[in-house]
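If you are new to this repository, start here. Below is one unmodified record pulled from the training split, so you can see the exact layout before writing a loader.
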Amino acid sequence: MIFAREATVRATRERVWEILVDPARVIPVLPPGRSLVATTGTAGAAGSGYVLEVPAWPRGLRLEHTVTQSEPGAALRLEVRRAGRLLAVHEGTLSASEDGGTRLVWLVKAEAPPVWGWLVAYRGRLELGRWIAAVVQVAEQAG
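And here is the target side for that same chain:
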């Protein structure tokens, strides 16, 4: 399944990039229960990554994010795994918006067994919307 979000951010591409690749700056404005467990490598560089714990019934999820492709200030591709199993591929792009800000487009390609597809689609869209809104908020506040 594929789902996407798009936002226009009143901040430079460089500022949006800084926020996008640093989950520690985004998590504080997300709903409670999400935590950054670990980071590796240089934020946003290919091969870098981070581990997030997110609330889910019954015990929560530990999601490993690894950057597989990176064009600083322009594009980012991540793989998201749980216990080594690929769950989703995220692809984000940044470009100049007509109003002088930044256009952020985020696409998620997720895998799920048919019986869980509806839940993954619902939760995936919900969490992606929250994450993009948080990136926008933090980037605009940072100027």
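Two things worth knowing about this chain: DSSP finds three helices and seven strands in the chain. Residues 117-142 form the longest helix (26 residues).
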